Amino acid sequence: MNIEIIGRAAFMIENILVNAPMGVIKELKEKKKKLDDISIVIITHLHPEEYLDLPLFIYDEFMAKRTKPLVIIGPKALKSRTLRIVKKTYGISRIKLLELDLTFVNAESIQNSNLINDYRFSFINTKHMRKSYSLIIKNNQTSLGYTGGAVMSPGLSYLLKKVKNCIIDIPNGEKEMTIEAFKKISEAYNINFIPVGYPDSIESELAKINNTKMIKEGEQFYI
Minimal CB count within 10 Å: which of 4, 42, 101, 222? Predict the structure, then answer.
């Protein structure tokens, strides 16, 4: 798998964008990436930090008269929230958006589903501040997990048993995955962890933890 970290809370695998936090569209444009090459956007949970640039993405593609299909996968309420923001912020109604080949899909319906090439995706319910999913991506060679700031839960435990590598959001908040909680997880599960979303103040401490691979923003890596 070829993974590219975009900012601190998003990454790309082929032409799939996972999460759309504020600033990710700007970063993609600075990298000279064409938005219409992105065919699928996955939003793992309804924390504003994960999807604030999604309405901008839709607006940009509407103004560019995109003709390629765009599929957005996420929690059930994502569609209504996103389209409400698009209308209030950019004045584009749902009727006008019919000009786009745009489809919203409830993440709960995606289990071991082939979304692109030989990659299979599954969404796992995990405990977080709002309705949240962690993500399992597999192909014939390896497997990757992603969890966005989730605290330890049966769903997260299940994910960590099923993957060889895991991108894990560690914002170091009291209600989210703290660095101490991450240390315990890294000791309990013999997989490779790629931390993201952490403040600069804990970077050196994270780098000392076993089974941790530090990846810089914008860097590509292979697993």
Answer: 222
Q: Could you give the CA distance from residue 214 to residue 102 in angstroms, rounded to a whole number?
A: 35
Domain that holds residue 174: 2-222
pLDDT per residue over 99-141, tens digit each?
A: 999 999 999 899 999 998 889 999 998 876 566 889 999 999 9
CATH number at residue 57: 3.60.15.10
Sheet holding 143-147, edge to edge: 113-116, 119-125, 133-138, 143-147, 165-169, 192-196
Q: How many domains, the chain?
A: 1
Task: List all residues 6 or more positions away from 180 whose beta carbon is below 8 Å from its beta carbon.
Answer: none
Maximum separation of any 2 CA atoms in the chain, in Å: 53
Rounded CA-CA distance 32/93 in Å is 29
Task: Give the residues across from 147 on adjacent strands.
Answer: 168
